Amino acid sequence: MSGGVDSSVAAALLKKAGFEVVGIFMKCWSAELSPACTSKEDERMARLAASHLNIPFYAVNFIDEYKKRVVDYLLEGYRKGITPNPDAMCNKEIKFGLFFEKAIQLGAAYVATGHYARLKDGKLREAVDENKDQSYFLSFIKPEVLSKVLFPIGEHTKPQVRELARRFGLPNAERKDSQGICFVGKVDVVDFLKHYLPVKPGKIIDVQGTVLGTHEGAQYYTIGQRKGIGLGGGPYYVVQKDIDRNILVVSKNEEGLYQKELILRDINWLSGDTRKNLISVDARIRYRQHLAPATLSKIGDAYKLTFQTPQRAITPGQVAALYQDTQLIAGGVIV
Predict the structure, then answer these.
(1) Whole-prediction pTM
(2) d(Cα 161, Cα 264) in Å, to the nearest integer?
(3) Interior angle at CA 36, CA 31 and CA 41, nearest 5
(4) Which residues are catalytic?
(5) Any bridge partners for residue 117, and if so which?
(6) pLDDT at residue 87 in the model
(7) Alpha-carbon span 40 to 31, nearest angstrom
(8) What residue spans define the domains of the chain?
(9) Which superfamily does 198-253 belong to?
(10) Which residues pair with 241 in a beta bridge?
(11) For residue 118, what pLDDT band results from cuts at 50, 70 and 90?
(12) Topology of domain 257-334, per CATH?
């Protein structure tokens, strides 16, 4: 239970269905590490919801593990000039890694979360609510955990979940959804990065090489970014980063942002025939993006994903999630 409405409704639905439910809050961050951290308020709201449902409630401390496995991964990625996905790593390493193992060791039959996703016949699928579907962020969890996982709200839309929260009388029924870095709350990513990665001013140039201005550090920006570049007369889009020379390349149009191919490594197979050298998939390269038809082919120890139509702002470090008939079959890191 994160303190939000989704996990609280998940707990309420499970109790109504006859399960013996225990609420667990994971402490993964603290105000000492980031002033904008909402952990204390999140825990308070989760505790109130558990009390209202009359279920046991515990808080477990994963701060050290989260720092090592998620935050350090995030910072190392930005240092290298890529844009990592901390939410996918948090699900892999913490929620469905350390936390899952601890829960099963303590005797839990299942681990349930408030993710918008569905499990059918042991297969992970998109949620009913396409706008809120979070299966994308689950593409790196181990396939063997799926037999002991429940996603109670996956068959509901967000408005339906809000209405259920009101019917259950949950104290956080109207609480706004959290945004930002996983478990850190509503934090501006650049402000967060500046705590750990020093400002390093450099040149902003256009695709012809003309110097247009300066930036605070190429590591703070991502491919396709439009806001926060700090140039007048725009809009400008980030089309390339030269992390070694600390140069940001921008363009006034988005033509240079579209590509048909990308290379994937570290593929995590949740299902599907991994022996084939060429398979047809539907893929998304960012959260809430519409699925795009593509073919996946093996090249050495990596994979090439070729789209039928060019995709905007393919970003190294981000996740590509692969589907077949709404079923999530794999996820990989874009290199």
Answers:
(1) 0.92
(2) 35
(3) 70
(4) 90, 182
(5) 126
(6) 92
(7) 8
(8) 5-168, 198-253, 257-334
(9) Adenine nucleotide alpha hydrolases-like domains (2.30.30.280)
(10) 248
(11) very high
(12) Elongation Factor Tu (Ef-tu); domain 3 (2.40.30)
